[in-house]
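Session log. Operator J.P. requested a structure for one protein chain; no other inputs attached. Running the standard single-chain path with token output.
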Amino acid sequence: MKFNKWTLGLAAIGVVSLASAAKAEETANSVLTALSSTTLSGYVDTSIQWNWGTGNGNNPPYSFGGASKADGFNLNVAQVSLATPMDELEWATGYRLDLWLGPDANQLGTLSAQSGGSSADFAIRQAYVALRAPVGNGIDFKIGVFDTIIGYESVASPNNPNYTRSYGQALEPQTHTGILASYRVCDNFSFAAGIANTIGPSINDRAHPPAGDHAESYKTYMASVAVTAPDRWGFLSGSTMYAGVVNGFSSSYGDGQTSFYVGATLATPVNNLKVGAAFDYLDVDSGFGDDGTAWVIALYASFQATEKLGLHLRGEYVDDQADFFPNGIAGTGFKTWELTATLQYDLWKNVLSRLTALGPLGQRQIVRFRCLRLLCSDAEKCCDARSQSHL
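Structure written below.
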């Protein structure tokens, strides 16, 4: 074993022994070998928000918004991720850990029953072991806490074209604790199926509270399918369509829920222009006769004008007959529409700078500037891309 000159010098005057130095070097090498395939990434999400007029207590009830972010400067969230991606081996393994720090971590709602009810600006967004079984083209498993399999928009800000989340994203589950199996039949078709404790995001939660509303074995079930247009479809090649369903008990809502989702992203004959659509439908079964439904339909457009300049539009219509959105302006029979426009200009490397204007019917216009600093050189590698349709 070779030693550097400083180690030899210290050994010569009796400060260290060569045996202890050799042992220390072997230990360090084993640690480096174990971590050699682990990647560190993440992002910091900050914003400036200006609400015209007064009455910040009645902001639109979309996810990760609210009066606490109105008319001021905000740290939204910092995500730190550790991951070991699976290689091409038949019995491949890996893992992923996404940690959230900041105010948005409190709204994510992944607190476990052992947390004592205080998140202290900290949350586990995802933490799962990834496994592959050599069956057919290979079945990939996630075991642990993972993002929901339905939805056009992601819980992670860099995956979305706009600063604000949609009403549809608020209607969907956020995360699950369970097992998810994914299988790619071919380049144009894949599907996934899973079992989780609940629809709600609380880690290690159960669907049988002390009141005994459900059997101890009651679980949440989910399935999805994704279709990609082949190359022979001309300008439509690469377009995607996605559909999914999640059925089970919602610990946060306190009732049984079934969430249906259909979404698509279509390429167009116009270079750098993509359009999309999403439909979310929620059926609430309380078991006490006060059931209800809520649905959201959304249209998206994204135009990449230059390498740095992008324009994004989103329009939504909401019909909430389930009293899902707990807000002063909402309630049973809550109906509204919203139009969001975003100008993104990436002036600095690895920084997404977005100016967003949101105009819901009957509400004040909101203007926001959001800046995300990505921790890795490739923005796509910073985010856990799902198979859903995203612009």
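Operator note: The first helix runs from residue 5 to 12.
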